[in-house]
Amino acid sequence: MQQGSLIRRHRKRGPDVWQFRWADRGPFGKRIYRRRVIGTVCQYPDADSARKSVAGLLTEINTNGVKRCAVPMTIAEVCDHFIQRELTNDNFWRSYSTKRSYKAYLKRWIVPHWGNVHLSEVRTMEVESWLRRLPLAKSSCAKIRNILSVLFNHACRHELFNGNPIRLVRQGAKRRTTPSVLTPVEIKALINNLDLRERTLVLVVASTGLRQSELFGLKWETSILIKGQ
């Protein structure tokens, strides 16, 4: 089972999922069968794309004691390995919101630019220059920098690589400009010119300080406005 086995599994609820199966040798030579859900058919529409996502995991399985850092890997492969090891639903080391945030940054920024680059080809100054060119707030660039560092630490931890060039990348998180804060008079004038739905949104934000994403994800059953509470 050097290449493992990839099977499409049907679920009662939700789309079908791809399940990867392989065998390990236990401490006494006994064969141990393992399996892991790779993702849904929405994420990986065919078997080829699903198998590509486990390239990093397959590399780790097949090394079997051989020095793994000798195997050249790309950033995309390490990302897939990181997702399968650290961002699965059964991994409670990180919160759900953190996992979702990591996946979003990996998919939107890191993989499109660095996906085909081998770990050994990543240079500190190239990453630093790239971050400064991104049309994002400093805090978002700092987040991307930290996730890149986490990826390299993950590769080192699993002996897929032997260094972290992101460690010396400089990227501050301080705001470029001071945020504009509305006064109570300005908030009142704004509310008076809005319809009921928009007025409610502004009142919730002004009184609670919720972020935009938190506001749009707010559900009635989780709010404190039920029964006048």
Description of the structure:
The chain has 229 residues and is mainly α. It has helices at 47-52, 55-63, 75-86, 96-114, 124-133, 138-157, 184-191, 196-208, 212-216, and strands at 5-9, 17-25, 31-40. Helix 3 packs antiparallel against helix 4 and helix 4 packs across helix 6.
How would you describe this structure in keywords?
229 residues; mainly alpha; three-stranded antiparallel β-sheet; 10% strand
In short:
The chain has 229 residues and is mostly helical. The protein is built from nine helices and three strands. Helix 3 packs across helix 6 and helix 4 crosses helix 6.
Task: Extract low-pLDDT stretches.
Answer: 65-70
- Please give the number of β-strands: 3
Radius of gyration: 23 Å
Order of helices and strands: EEEHHHHHHHHH
Proportion of β residues?
5-15%
Outline the biggest β-sheet: 3 strands, antiparallel
- What is the chains' assembly state? single chain
- Give the CA-based shape: flat
Average pLDDT taken over every residue? 83
The N- to C-terminal Cα distance equals 59 Å
Structural class: mainly alpha
Read across the widest sheet, the strand sequence of neighbours is 1-2-3
With helices defined by DSSP (H or I, 4 residues minimum), what is the helix count?
9
Q: Percentage of helical residues?
A: 40-55%
